[in-house]
Design goal:
Shape: globular
CATH class of the largest domain: Alpha Beta
Radius of gyration: 22 Å
CATH topology of the largest domain: FAD/NAD(P)-binding domain
Distance between the termini: 58 Å
Largest sheet: 7 strands, mixed
Mean pLDDT: 93
Oligomer: single chain
Strand content: 15-25%
Structural class: alpha/beta
Number of helices: 14
Helix content: 25-40%
Number of strands: 18
Length: 534
C-alpha cells in the first residue's frame, strides 16, 4: 500500500501540467503520476494541429474566439466554461513557452506563425510543424524531471477508484457523499495489484477513440478514467457527442491508429474534392472546406455513401511545396511512404473517431460529483465543447483546467486525511485466462458494433441493435472478469464496453440531431442530410 498526497492518473498535457504545478507549489507533498505504458505515450503526443489562443489582439479578440467556440458547440456549450478557457488560455500557453515549448515562428522570426483551422474566424493556432502535441509532451516531460517530489509510475494500470463501496457500504448514484480514497492499480510488469491511497485523486486519462474500428487515437485511448468513474457511481455527461475527424489518411492496409491529416492542412489552403476532382463542400456550408468538423465529417460520409466510394480527396497540388513541407513534414513523408506525392496527387481521406466531447462531469475547478476526485483533459466534460469541439481547443482546455484544479486542491488538501481500513485487492478464485482470443475477438466485435450502428449517422433501429449486442458482450466479459486473473487487455475490454454503453445510451436518449449527434429519426429541419437520408 502506497500513500500519496496527489495521485494523477494520466501523463498527457492535463495530467503533467497539473503534476508540475502541484509539485512546484507544494514541495512538501508527494505527487505521483501513473501511466499505463511509458510517460512519453499519451493522446497529447498525437495532436498535430496546435493549440488555439487569442494571440494577435490587433486582429483577434476574446469575443471572436468565444463566438467561434459557441458556434461550433451548436448551442450546448457552457458559456462560463467557454469564457474561462478563452480568457485564461493565453496565459497558460505563455507558461508552456516559458517551460521550453518551441512553437513555430513566422519567417521574420519575431512573431509566431499563427495557423487557421475549421470554424475559426481568425488565425490563432500556435503550432510546432505538424507535431505540436509531441513537442508539448517533450517539454512537459523535461520540466517534470526537475521536481524531486514528483514521481512517475510507468506501466501502472489503474483498475478501479476506491470509495466507501470498498469499505462495505452500499453506494448508488443517489448516494450524496461518495468519496474517493485512491485507486487499485495493476503493476503490469509484476502482475500484482497495488493499493494507492491518496488524499486527492485526479483523472487525466484521455479519450476513448479505440471504441471504434477506425480512430486517430493511440492504443491506450480506452476510456479508462470515464469507465472507472461510471463504476464508482460518478456523474458522466454528453457521451453521445463523439467527434470524427474529417480527414484521416485512407490506407487499404488498415492502421491502428489511423494517420491524421491535420485540419491545419485545410487551413493552409487544401481543398476537399471528390476522387474525380469535383468540389463538394459548397453544397453543405458556405465556409466550404473550413466548416466545423461535424459538418465536414458528415459531408464526407454522405458523399462516400451516395457515390459508393471508399474515400474522398484532399487537394494540396496548388500549394507551394517548400512551405507545405516546412509546415507539414510528417504528413508529407507519410504520404510519400505510401506512394502519394501531395504536390502531384490527391490525398485520400476518410473520417475517423477522434475526440469525446463528453466525459466525467466537472465544475469550474475540475471537481467531479465524487468528493476528492478531480478530472481534466479529454476524460472530463467541462461544458467547453458542447455538441462539437472547435479545432485546437482541447490542448487549451487541458492547460486551463490543470491550473484551476491545482488552485482548488491547494485550498483543500491540508484538511484531508488518508482513509484507513482499505482492504487489499481480493483475487480469490481467479485463474490465468486460457484463451486470450476470447478478449481479442470481443474487442473486434465491439469496434464493429460501434462503427456500424453508433457512428457518424445513427437511427433508433441501429441503436437498439447496438444495445442488444453490447449486452451480450457485457455479460460474457463480466463472467471472464470474475473468474480470471486481471490483465490490461481484460480491463481495457471492460472499460471499452462501458464506454460503448454510455455513448449508445446517451445517443438513444437525445431525441434530436445536434452537433456531432445526427439521427435519421429526428433530423434537424436545417440539417443538410434531411433530404438525402430520410
Amino acid at each position: 500500500m502506497k500513500k500519496i498526497d496527489v495521485l494523477v492518473i494520466g501523463s498527457g498535457v492535463a495530467g503533467l501540467t497539473l503534476a508540475i504545478k502541484m509539485a512546484e507549489r507544494h514541495p512538501d507533498q508527494k505527487i505521483c503520476v501513473l501511466t499505463k505504458t511509458s510517460k512519453e505515450e499519451s493522446n497529447t503526443r498525437y495532436a498535430q494541429g496546435g493549440v488555439a489562443a487569442v494571440w494577435n489582439f490587433d486582429t483577434d479578440s476574446y469575443q471572436k474566439h468565444i463566438a467561434d467556440t459557441l458556434d461550433a458547440g451548436d448551442g450546448l456549450c457552457d458559456k462560463q466554461a467557454v469564457d474561462i478557457v478563452v480568457k485564461e488560455g493565453p496565459t497558460r500557453v505563455k507558461e508552456l513557452i516559458d517551460w521550453g515549448t518551441r512553437f513555430d515562428k513566422a519567417k521574420n522570426a519575431e512573431k509566431y506563425d499563427l495557423g487557421k483551422e475549421g470554424g475559426h474566424s481568425e488565425n490563432r493556432i500556435l503550432h510546432y510543424k505538424d507535431l505540436t502535441g509531441w513537442e508539448i509532451q517533450r517539454a512537459l516531460n523535461e520540466k517534470a524531471k526537475s521536481y524531486p517530489n514528483l514521481e512517475y509510475y510507468d506501466y501502472y494500470f489503474a483498475i478501479d477508484l476506491i470509495t466507501q463501496h470498498h469499505l462495505g457500504r452500499n453506494v448508488t448514484r443517489l448516494t450524496p457523499d461518495i468519496k474517493c480514497y485512491g485507486a487499485y492499480v495493476l503493476n503490469t510488469e509484476t502482475r500484482g495489484i497495488e493499493t494507492f491511497l491518496a488524499k486527492i485523486t485526479v483523472l487525466a486519462s484521455g479519450g476513448a477513440g479505440q471504441v471504434y474500428k477506425t480512430t486517430t487515437n493511440p492504443d491506450i485511448a480506452t476510456g479508462d478514467g470515464m469507465a472507472m468513474t461510471y463504476r464508482a457511481k460518478g456523474r458522466i455527461e454528453n457521451m453521445e457527442f463523439v467527434q470524427f475527424h474529417p480527414t484521416s489518411l485512407f490506407n487499404p492496409a488498415i492502421e491502428n491508429p489511423a494517420f491524421l491529416v491535420s485540419e491545419a492542412v485545410r487551413g493552409f489552403g487544401a481543398i476537399l474534392r471528390m476522387p474525380d476532382g469535383t468540389e463538394f463542400m459548397q453544397k453543405y456550408d458556405p465556409r466550404k472546406s473550413l466548416a466545423p468538423r461535424d459538418i465536414v465529417a458528415r459531408a464526407i460520409d454522405n458523399e462516400m455513401k451516395m457515390q459508393g466510394k471508399d474515400f474522398m480527396s484532399l487537394d494540396c497540388t496548388h500549394l507551394d511545396k517548400e512551405d507545405f513541407y516546412a509546415h507539414f513534414p510528417t504528413i508529407y513523408d507519410k504520404c510519400k511512404s505510401l506512394g502519394i506525392d501531395p504536390m502531384k496527387d490527391y490525398i485520400p481521406v476518410v473520417p475517423a473517431a477522434h475526440y469525446i466531447c463528453g466525459g466525467v462531469k466537472v465544475d469550474e475547478y475540475g471537481q467531479t460529483s465524487i468528493q476528492n476526485l478531480y478530472a481534466c483533459g479529454e476524460c472530463s466534460c467541462t461544458g467547453l465543447h458542447g455538441a462539437n469541439r472547435l479545432a485546437s481547443n482541447s490542448l487549451l482546455e487541458g492547460l486551463v483546467y490543470a491550473e484551476r484544479v491545482v488552485d482548488d486542491i491547494s485550498l483543500r488538501i491540508k484538511n484531508i486525511d488518508y482513509q484507513e481500513g482499505i482492504p487489499d485487492w481480493d483475487a480469490t478464485g481467479t485463474t490465468d485466462p486460457k484463451e486470450l482470443v476470447l478478449i481479442t475477438q470481443s474487442v473486434k466485435e465491439l469496434k464493429e458494433i460501434m462503427s456500424s450502428y453508433v457512428g457518424i449517422v445513427r437511427s433508433s433501429v441501429r441503436l437498439k441493435r447496438a444495445f442488444e449486442r453490447l449486452h451480450i458482450l457485457y455479460e460474457e466479459t463480466e463472467q471472464l472478469y470474475m473468474t480470471t486473473t486481471i490483465s490490461p487487455q481484460l480491463c481495457e475490454l471492460r472499460n471499452l464496453i462501458t464506454i460503448a454503453y454510455m455513448i449508445t445510451r446517451s445517443a438513444a436518449t437525445r431525441k434530436e440531431s445536434r452537433g456531432l449527434h445526427y439521427t435519421t429519426d429526428y433530423p434537424d429541419k436545417n440539417d443538410f442530410l434531411e433530404s438525402t437520408l430520410m
